[in-house]
Structures are given as structure tokens and as C-alpha cells.
Amino acid sequence: MVTRLNYATTGSKAYRAMSQLEHAVKNCGLESSLIELVKIRASQINGCAYCIDMHTKDARAAGESEQRIYLLFAWREAPFYSERERAALEWTEALTLIADNHVPDDIYERVAAHFAEEELANLTLAVVTINAWNRFAISFRSEPGTYQPQQTITH
Questions:
Q1: 100-104: average pLDDT
Q2: Does residue 15 sit in helix, strand or coil?
Q3: Packing angle of the helix pair 12-26, 32-46 (nearest 10 deg)
Q4: What domains lie within the chain, and their CATH numbers?
Q5: Residue 49 and residue 39: Cα distance in Å, rounded?
Q6: Model pTM?
Q7: Residue 51 CA: distances (Å) to CA of 54, 111, 143
């Protein structure tokens, strides 16, 4: 597979706009582990190899367990996720596959039971943003395997 376009440099205004969204997601107050799980799950659904590679690396670098990463595609059957995480993952799937059933009320009710309104808006932004990144990476064939996570500095 050959990369079609380096959107980080070629589409600099688009990339800057996406980076601002990403900054908002990163600083929204939701748990970083939850955000990484959401990013991985949406990327799995969309089949974005680049983003799966990136976010599994970021999750591991942040201390996420291999077991939880490996079983994320089958989170409903795995006992390793909290009720809050399960609600977020169900919300992620509903939003990512929005054309299928337009986010049913029962899914909204389940996620709203675990997230305050602002948190739910921020969770939605995280899902929307990773879905947009997936579309950039898939469309322009970003090469998986090249991403390296930033080193965490501890004091």
C-alpha cells in the first residue's frame, strides 16, 4: 500500500483544525484510558489500521493492559471493563455506525446514566474526532507501523 497524500502537510488548514479538535478531546477532563479505548474501538469498526496501531501503542504507553486491548473487539463478553467504559464503548459503536440505527434511546439512556451532560458532550466529541481521523488515514492510506508514542515524563 502506498500513501496517497500526506494530509498533515498538504492539507495544513484541515490538519490544524483536526489538531485543535484533538487538543480539545485530550483536555476535556475524561479519563485518558477511556478516550484511548474509544479511539481503538471506533478505529476497529472503521478498519483503520493506522489509527489502531497508533492508539494501541498510546494505550500501552499509558499503562493499559494487553488483555484489555486484545479483547476490546469483544468487550461485551469480557469482564475487564467498568460499567462506565461499557457505556462509552456502546455509545462509540452507535455513533460510529450512526447510519444503521440513528442512536436508539435505550443506548442514550445507558450512557447518560454514567456521564454528566458535559462529559457526554465531550465523549461525543472524542468519538466524532476519531471517526474523522479514521477517514483521513483510510482515504489517504496512512502507513501503519510508523507511529511511535511520546515518552511519558515522570517526576
A1: 96
A2: helix
A3: 130
A4: 12-139 (1.20.1290.10)
A5: 12
A6: 0.91
A7: 5, 24, 10
